[in-house]
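Summary of Year 1 activities. Much of the first year was spent building the evaluation harness for sequence design. The harness presents a backbone, in tokenized form, and records the residue chosen at every position. We chose the following record to illustrate the format because it has been used consistently in internal testing since the harness was completed.
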């Protein structure tokens, strides 16, 4: 099963620029440990993953009545900003949740991908 994992930056984790250099290095070690744990776990594959620019860099595309418009900024006014994402293939949700415990203290949304077949 494939899962989209959204890392939302309003958990216990403070904003990246507010971290000291040592804290940034520790956060990066946690991401590296997550990557390694996924590689070592049978049946788990990280298919994609990236850090995201903040909401001020987002562009929203809306289609209404056949017309498309672009606006600067996130889809909705946000208090919490997405810090990044992973697309992970895992045998089940329990395995994925266990592995996500390695990551820094983000709020996390997990959505299973729909298999069209």
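For this record, the design step produced the sequence shown next.
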């Amino acid at each position: 099963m494939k899962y989209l994992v959204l890392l939302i930056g309003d958990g216990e984790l403070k904003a990246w620029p507010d971290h000291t250099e040592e804290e940034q290095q520790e956060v990066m070690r946690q991401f590296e440990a997550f990557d390694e744990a996924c590689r070592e776990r049978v049946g788990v594959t990280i298919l994609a993953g990236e850090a995201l620019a903040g909401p001020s860099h987002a562009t929203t595309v809306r289609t209404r009545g056949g017309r498309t418009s672009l606006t600067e900024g996130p889809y909705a006014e946000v208090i919490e900003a997405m810090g990044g994402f992973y697309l992970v293939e895992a045998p089940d949700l329990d395995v994925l949740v266990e592995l996500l415990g390695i990551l820094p203290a983000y709020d996390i949304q997990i959505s299973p991908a729909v298999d069209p077949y």
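Helices lie at 21-40, 93-100. Quantitative recovery figures across the full test set are reported in Table 2.
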